[in-house]
Amino acid sequence: MVTLTDRLDYTSSMINNQAYCLAVEELLGVEPPPRAKYLRTQTAELQRIASHLIAVGFFVQELGAFGTPLMYSFRSRERILDLFEMLCGARVTVSYMRPGGVFADAPRDFWPALDRFLEDFEGELAEIEQLLLENEILMVRTRGVSPIPAEVAINCSVSGPVLRASGINWDWRKQEPYDAYDQVEFDVPIGSNGDNYDRFCERMQEVHQSLRIVRQCIAQIEPGPVRLDLPLVLRPEAGREAYGRVEASKGELAFYLVSDGGISPYRCKIRSPSLINLTIIEHLLVGWKLADMIVSLGSIDINMGEVDR
Amino acid sequence: MYGLAMVKGLMVTLKNLTRKPFTVQYPEERVRQHPRFRGEEFVWYEERCTGCASCAKYCPLGIIKIETSPSGSALPQGDKYRLEVFDIELQRCMFCGLCVEACPYDALFMGSGFEQGQYSRKNMVITIDQLRNAEKHPSTWFRPQLEGYEGETSIRRGTPTIAQGDSRFTYDPRGGPPLGWREVGREAWRWHQREKAGMRLEDSPETPETVGGEATEPGADD
């Protein structure tokens, strides 16, 4: 099942793995070893950076800046995917995490490579920001366009950067810390009026916070086992149910599992952020120009693999 | 002032104009693959395989087809079955690697190649003969013994980096020679020897990693 969660939101597979593993762990009543928690937190944050880079790159592409800003963000994303290949042998469909930990420890050359990436990424991110954040065309096209007031955002139960851009401080990493998020310090950036520009800025600031978390994870990680000694095929007690919830890059991602004692879940409900964020589309589009339609759609950063999960 | 940010943005463009491109022209240039890369061709060691069909059972898509017959002649190797059919339908494979994770005898490895495009679906089914005769460049995915860590998997951050040229730590699946079945097992690990004591590989040498890598011919043990 872990391998199937990669395919939900293929731009943030690590976080999908994490949500499913948290649900299974709750079902079994086990807790992964601390090193595994840090490895999970760290890879999930790297994946969040990669996912936000895609979101920002395509957002600007949809404004008509064809190719160039996208290439800047893909340059950094490729390096993250390289790190994932080093970790788990695949770039997109990672399947790195397992119930009870991660499948294997990071190889030795992963740590120097991660250090090099963090060093270079500062400059690369600064370039992207210099290119985009104050760009007049981008400001004119996005500032004040399709604002989502906080009440509407709550009523439509959107989550993630879209909700925070509307000025609501709500992040499951803070509200209900899972894995190693209670050990690291980070801020939750919030926007003010929830227009397209705010949603774009929100993502750029979250990348900075993710970098902070990765740095702290590197500093705090201790040697130890990375995986519990669980059987390959798990048979949780019949009748138990669990809800595993994470703050994915696009919003709240949750798995609701019910076990009937067999090897596969009796019921598996996925609360996918893309689908629920898509429900505000009426408030985003009605009354605005046709030319802004694609941009607004890009600003909520949906992923069709997750909408039709 | 209007246009100032535009100039700032153009400075970035100017700076990148003088840089080397970060793209790779694929067929001519290639990036070095990481050893854990989950590639297309499965690497299968018949000498290690007992025909238990764990891989087929754990495959989420059910694309591995195994047919076995009890083989009296292979009994000295430990009650193993002779494999008659081992078909892998590559076109439906999603390269999750659960078959490799499930294999208890280190007989199945992920490969490290990625250029196996075919023009017809029929050719996408890998048969037992293709698996037997393929050059064996296994990936280290879920096979930590190939990474040369000698069982110590908890690596403290800040350990000195691996010396360049130490071939034990710089395993390169594509660059190196193909590996035989004696070189890929976990028997070198003491804990694994204890764990897999019932494996009864009759002619397995005491320390497999010191033996030169000549794979025995398939069927030579019968």
Q: Can you walk through the features of this model?
A:
The complex is a heterodimer of chains A (309) and B (222). Chain A has one domain: Cytochrome-c3 Hydrogenase, chain B, CATH 1.10.645. In chain A, β1 (97-98) and β2 form a beta hairpin. The mean pLDDT of chain A is 90. Chain A contains 14 helices and five strands. Chain A has helices at residues 2-5, 13-28, 34-62, 68-88, 110-132, 136-142, 150-155, 161-165, 172-175, 196-220, 273-277, 281-285, 293-299, 304-307; strands spanning 97-98, 101-102, 241-248, 251-258, 267-271. Chain A is globular, with a radius of gyration of 19 Å. Helices cover 52% and strands 8% of the residues of chain A. With 222 residues, chain B is of the alpha+beta class. Chain B has a domain at 29-147 and 167-201: Alpha-Beta Plaits, CATH 3.30.70.3270. Chain B is 16% helix and 13% strand. Chain B contains five helices and five strands. Chain B has helices at residues 4-17, 54-58, 98-102, 128-133, 190-195; strands spanning 39-44, 64-70, 81-89, 108-111, 125-126. The longest helix of chain B has 14 residues, at 4-17. Chain B is elongated, with a radius of gyration of 22 Å. The model of chain B is unreliable at 149-169 and 188-222 (pLDDT under 50). The A-B interface holds A 1, 3-4, 35, 68, 72, 75, 78, 82, 85-90, 93, 95, 103-109, 111-112, 127, 130-132, 134-137, 218, 221-226, 232-233 and B 2-3, 5-6, 8-9, 11-13, 15-16, 22, 33-38, 58, 60, 94-98, 101-102, 110, 139, 141-142, 144, 147, 149, 153-157, 159, 161-162, 169.
